[in-house]
Design brief:
By secondary structure, this protein is mostly helical. It has 2 domains: 31 residues, no CATH class; 45 residues, no CATH class. Helix content is 39%, strand content 0%. It has 4 helices and no strands. The longest helix has 11 residues. It is elongated.
Length: 84
């Protein structure tokens, strides 16, 4: 609470440091796993689609295009949903 009141800009950094140092947690809880299109596609079906949530700086377009070229039976198309 103290940090949140006096240094709100440092709250996320401090929480990440605490998680990294904690025995039961560690850096695995801070660093996201790399995106693996092959694994994601093999886990999906027509009833369980792949849903990709984008964040600033994340662009999976290259991975999707690469996968599509590698497996020619899966053509892709792009639709821009706009930006709020």
């Amino acid at each position: 609470m103290f940090l949140r009141v006096f240094r709100p800009d440092k709250v996320i950094q401090i929480i990440q440091k605490l998680i990294k140092k904690e025995k039961e947690l560690g850096p695995a809880y801070i660093v996201p796993p790399p995106f693996d299109m092959d694994k994601s596609f093999s886990d999906s079906t027509n009833k369980t689609p792949i849903i990709i949530v984008l964040s600033a700086g994340a662009d999976p377009t290259g991975s999707i295009d690469e996968y599509s070229k590698k497996h020619k039976q899966f053509p892709t198309g792009k639709v821009s949903m706009g930006e709020a």
